[in-house]
Design a protein that fits this description.
mainly beta, five-stranded antiparallel β-sheet, three-stranded antiparallel β-sheet, 2 helices
Length: 207
């Protein structure tokens, strides 16, 4: 997974108490769309392309050209394994950055383009029992409600932290849909979203 924040999306504009999450949603239409975890059958997490429990999964974060581990720790990246609000037919693969404002500016890019911040994430996850899953994807900025030490269980607990979301600073809403569920794409797939191009995902999906 590769992400860039450029021009007016510069993360320096963020307030200190806002974080960021990016989610790839797996869908299994044979499972209940109304019942929620933990009320789902015990083997529910295995019925997706990747095991939705994410137990044993790892995420390696590289910011800009590669920061030291000490600086990475200050940015507070995490693999989001908390899926208690997910319905049974939804198996989420999520990563988060508790303090994205601490990612420094990064100069570079094609044709001298200045990239403000860049993040690359490599996920290694346990396999589920399904050969494929339908997918959708979205990203969002959310309140960092962690009193001490960022982790999955304290991010986004309230609608607003000390500072309310600044639409003026960041140029938009907190949420961005990256791949619509209605497209019916399946894993494995590749897609990219470029706001300066076609305003829609481009790539290859088996569908």
């Amino acid at each position: 997974m590769e992400m860039q924040w450029i021009n007016n999306s510069n993360l320096v504009r963020l307030y200190d108490d806002w974080g960021f999450e990016n989610d790839l949603y797996q869908w299994n239409n044979k499972l209940s769309s109304t019942a929620q975890r933990p009320a789902c059958p015990k083997d529910t997490d295995t019925k997706f392309w990747a095991n939705a429990s994410l137990k044993g999964g790892t995420a390696v974060f590289i910011f800009n050209e590669g920061l030291s581990s000490a600086k990475n720790k200050a940015i507070s990246p995490y693999l989001d394994r908390n899926h208690l609000s997910d319905t049974c037919n939804q198996g989420t693969i999520g990563i988060g950055i508790g303090e994205p404002k601490k990612i420094p500016n990064y100069g570079g890019g094609e044709a001298g383009q200045k990239i403000n911040q860049r993040a690359f994430v490599r996920l290694s996850l346990p396999k589920g029992n399904a050969s494929w899953s339908h997918i959708s994807s979205a990203s969002s900025f959310l309140p960092n409600n962690c009193p001490k030490g960022v982790h999955q269980d304290c991010m986004g607990l309230h609608e607003e932290p000390g500072n309310t979301w600044s639409e003026k600073n960041m140029g938009g809403d907190t949420d961005m849909l990256l791949l619509n569920k209605k497209r019916g794409w399946k894993t494995p797939a590749y897609f990219s979203w470029d706001e300066f191009a076609s305003k829609r995902p481009q790539g290859i999906g088996r569908g």
